[in-house]
Amino acid sequence: MARTTFKGGIHPRYFRELTRDKSIKEAKLPDKVIIPLSQHAGAPAEPTVKVGDEVKAGTEIGKSDKFISSLVHSSLSGKVVAIEKHPHPVLGSAQAIVIEGDGKDEREEFTPRDPEGVTPEEARKIIARAGIVGLGGAAFPTHVKLTPPEGKEIDTFILNGAECEPYLTGDYRIMVEKTNEVVQGLKIIMRTLGVKQVYVGIEKDKAEAIASLREALRGEEGVEVVPLEVRYPQGAEKQLLKTLLNREVPIGGLPLDVGCVVNNVGTALAIYEAIGLGKPLYERVVTVTGRVVNDPVNLRARIGTPISNLIEECGGFRGEVGKVIIGGPMMGLAQHSLDTPVTKGTSGILCLGEKEVALKEETPCIRCARCVDACPMNLLPTEIRKEVRARRWERLSEYNILNCMECGCCQYVCPADIPLVHLFKVGKSELRRIKRS
Ligand code: SF4
Ligand code: SF4
């Protein structure tokens, strides 16, 4: 029997009631999409179309010859009108292909395959051709994850349905509304990796999702649906591994270093859709939420849709908006423009009111050690803070700063309101710079 939680972490207020009981809605077709060529971990794609080309939803528009990269597809039928820099949710600004829609929503025809009839090699090829990346936020190319390097034995797969960030409910809705498709995606992954042991980790507050998946997986040998303690960051890969398998990923390592692969439930759905329906990844579920949004909801939106379209579709704002974040409140990134497009890694658009983001003044550290207790990576945030402020970059290695996943737990509990995550980002970047030089 797997364990149900890990050391450290926090219990923030979740605000999931804003969207959790509303069915996923199809977002309106945008007039125009802005599709970044870099929306995945690894090498950016290069354009394979030029201005003036006609495309359909699902037409390949960007690719790279590097193994760690991902194909990029059009999400609309219409015409390429520009290839230029645009706001990007993670990079600030990046090269993107702009497509003006023709309103016809024509789609490329790909031959669906019987999910049970594809070989592991065929599955990897279809997944790569469909441009599938991890939809939990990290956007790591899925065909790479499902191709363990020689000598790495994978004995366990974890399907991640934890969705531990406050406010976000897209994965929950997928598990409830698309249970059978998620299960089909899971079975494709199991056959591709050849694993016999599978855990489906879901936080206990998602009872309906736990029940649906248990029912759909009843009698499936080696597969266990495990209700997990509700605690942030339960859905982080390293915490899931520790919780479910009591295995620790080495510093700078990956789950495959300890014999495991982890994928999110949205990714399993995308894998099923690529193989069973012949559909590349050109849309995803996005939670549009926050107490300043008139009608928060989960939308299935085309990749490249400006986030302003989705906010408008949710009735726009009520009251003053202080910050718009892509992702959740703990690890999401504040945006400077509402023209930023939805990318494959966009799990949510969180709009916070002015009062909710009012900056509190930092006061001196009182050495309460709450940050140490909250850190799920067993780090010493208060000591790292001191070294960063003293610009003693080399000392940061001794404190394993590169193991910091910027989860924000330490900052959340800090009574002195010290901007710890910002300091750690600076420290990590300086240490990496020194290691490179
Ligand atoms: S939680 Fe804040 S005040 Fe307490 S020890 Fe850590 S940094 Fe200092
Ligand atoms: S942000 Fe880093 S130091 Fe702070 S709790 Fe998370 S992992 Fe630990």
Commentary on this structure:
By secondary structure, this protein is of the alpha/beta class. Among the domains are: 111-276, Rossmann fold (3-Layer(aba) Sandwich), CATH 3.40.50; 370-436, no CATH class. Helices cover 25% and strands 20% of the residues. The chain has 12 helices and 17 strands. The chain has helices spanning 120-129, 142-145, 170-177, 179-193, 207-216, 237-245, 265-276, 307-313, 370-374, 381-389, 409-413, 420-436, and strands spanning 25-26, 32-36, 46-47, 54-55, 60-63, 72-73, 78-88, 92-101, 156-161, 197-203, 223-228, 260-264, 283-289, 297-302, 321-326, 333-334, 348-353. A 6-stranded mixed beta sheet has the order 1-14-13-17-15-16, sandwiched between helices. β7 and β8 form a beta hairpin. It starts with 24 loop residues before the first strand and ends with a helix.
List keywords for this structure.
alpha/beta; Rossmann fold; binds iron/sulfur cluster; four-stranded antiparallel β-sheet; 12 helices; 437 residues
Shape: globular
CATH topology of the domain at 111-276: Rossmann fold
Q: Can you count the helices?
A: 12
Residue windows where pLDDT falls under 50 for at least 5 positions: none
Rg, rounded, reads 21 Å
- For this structure, what is the CATH class of the domain at 111-276? Alpha Beta
Specify the structural class.
alpha/beta
Helix content: 25-40%
Total strand segments? 17
Bound molecules: iron/sulfur cluster
Q: Return the CATH architecture of the domain at 111-276.
A: 3-Layer(aba) Sandwich
The fourth-level CATH homologous superfamily of the domain at 111-276 is NADH-ubiquinone oxidoreductase 51kDa subunit
Major β-sheet profile:
6 strands, mixed
